[in-house]
Amino acid sequence: MVKIGNIELPDFPLLLAPMEDVSDPPFRALCKENGADVVYTEFISSEGLIRDAAKSVMKLDIYEKERPVGIQIFGANLESMLRTVEIVEKSNPDIIDINFGCPVKKVVSKGAGAGILKDIDLMVSLTEAMVKHTNLPITVKTRLGWDHDSIRIVEVAERLQDVGCAAISIHGRTRAQMYKGEADWKPIAEVKNNQRMHIPVFGNGDITTPEKAMEMRDSYGLDGAMIGRAAIGYPWFFNEVKHYFKTGTYLGKPTIAQRVEMARRHLQMAIDWKGPVLGVFETRRHYTNYFKGIPHFKEYRMKMVTSDDATSVFNAFDEVEAKFGNMIIPQEY
């Protein structure tokens, strides 16, 4: 069993990573249904929350069926982050997660996200202040370091633990790498193998197959896997990993009809939550993966990703189901 604060999770839990414009309530609900043990919100700007910016406030929406759910926030100003904790608490999440890993320039340039990897003392002091400011477990998501020459993740993780961080998720790349090259899990294993560490250490980055998840568990000895891009447009991935752990065999891929039904539900839930314009727009990124492997799919995909009208997208789903409904997509990762 793995514990984040008082939250009990199964052995080697699978976590849905916080992803901007992806990890919204509709998608989190679908991932939860399909085996995710913990889900996290999109990251939320502390400054945006304090200004009461509509998009930031909307991201605080969480639902009972998602639990345990973590709200992830980012910022670099102590006063703002503490005020944010108070706002976030009102949404009653199970976990508050601090983003110390986002590599995007507009976040880093403010000293937040991965930008704080240039100031480890600030990273630690912010975490400590937030731990003292709430009874909710505070967790951290970060990267190996700012660049290859500044990797101190074993020391950083230990310091974060010592000030009360309840769990740490580590992406196996530096900020300088962005999302290029291969994720390096060895430094994450070094964190886990540090005899002083007793909080859960979760790995993140390049978990694209059930075998990769098993490697992270068995060869690297980590406490769980945080899954991001592999789940976009494919919430079945969590159950596929669990089935592989249990049986050593692949769970059958969803049929075209099941894919269409999932995409249909996803879009409808997004429209119900965000309205017809944003709902249609922000679900587009999922369609390539929902229908991956269908031959000559481009014409349908273009309809799905260029139409601003929900009816047109639903009609495209119907066309795909009518044409390919009986097709079986080969098992591959």
Provide keyphrases for this structure:
alpha/beta, 2 domains, eight-stranded parallel barrel, Non-ribosomal Peptide Synthetase Peptidyl Carrier Protein, Chain A, 15 helices, 333 residues, TIM Barrel, single chain, 11 strands, two-stranded antiparallel sheet
Roughly what is the average pLDDT, rounded to an integer?
A: 92
Termini separation: 29 Å
CA-based gyration radius: 20 Å
Number of H- or I-type helical stretches: 15
Q: Using the coordinates shown, work out and report the CATH topology of the largest domain.
A: TIM Barrel
CATH architecture of the largest domain: Alpha-Beta Barrel
Task: Summarize this structure briefly.
The protein is α/β, with parallel strands linked by helices. 43% of the residues lie in helices and 14% in strands. The chain has two domains: 2-247, TIM Barrel (Alpha-Beta Barrel), CATH 3.20.20; 256-324, Orthogonal Bundle (Non-ribosomal Peptide Synthetase Peptidyl Carrier Protein, Chain A).
